[in-house]
Amino acid sequence: ALTCFWMWLDLVLLLIGTGDAIKRLTTSKYAVINPTTMRIARIGRMLRTVTILKSQPSFSALFLMTKSIQASAHALLWSLVLIFFAMTCTGMLINQGLYSYFLDTTKSLAERREVFDYFGTYSRMFITMFEFTLGNWAPPSRLLMNNVSEWWGLFVVVYRCMFCFSIVNVTAAVFMAETNRVASGDDEVMVMRKERLKKANAEKLNVLFQELDLSGDGCLTFDEFEHLLTDSVMRAFLSTMDLEVQDLHALFRLLDDGDGKVQLNEFVQGMHTLRGQAKHVDLLALMNMVQGMDQKLESVEKRLRR
């Protein structure tokens, strides 16, 4: 329970609310918490609605986004560390390269001050490197070319090609792949995807059933079922759901409960069970059935020998 994010959020909001009440009930100078800030902090409680709305189909995308953000924490951290380290090292290299320019009294003071505003201190340098890497890199590079040397333009181009097109893009790709991997392995996300896929397939099968039900009585006879074999469009439609129709007689017997007709629920449930390849549980059930039949045959054989 101590690791629950929502519990700590409630605790923080409770403390803030207590401070707000103290602020209202007393005029003490020690109650220095800004009441507006406390009211804004209460908006954080709205985050809990995400866990409530996750069961609603229209909010499933929002829930998936929040789970992906949570899953991307570690990948995001190391991506930022890598980018921060590369920008810092490159920025310090540029700063050292401009050191002699800053001390050159033959250059205009206004031009040197302009370059200093971009690269003179660590904070200025870091913001400029952020522009080089992820923002508008043209103005600072033009400044170096015009005020210092045109060779700095080549340096910026090499930096953009080697760092931005390689490290940044590779980092972004690894970040997205790691986020998708962790998010897809989340139990709640997997259950949600399974339910959405099952619902979508049920809707498709419902449409297929309506197309096959030529009489409109809500039941499929074998004559109506034979359209699956003759209609190429319906066969292609089934193939999109990993359903291959080979033996119509066997398929109809599997779907039928013995009355010679297939109801809508029988059709949907049966087709959903037959989707894709055989599952391990199906093979295990078949093996148990074969073993049971083998034991019965052995007992019959022993009786006949007597």
UniProtKB/TrEMBL annotation:
The chain crosses the membrane at residues 71-94, 151-175. Coiled coil: none annotated. It comes from Alexandrium monilatum. Residues 226-306 form the HPt domain. GO terms for biological process: phosphorelay signal transduction system. It holds the Pfam family EF-hand_7. Residues 1-21 form the signal peptide. This is Calmodulin. Keywords: Calcium, Membrane, Phosphoprotein, Signal, Transmembrane, Transmembrane helix.
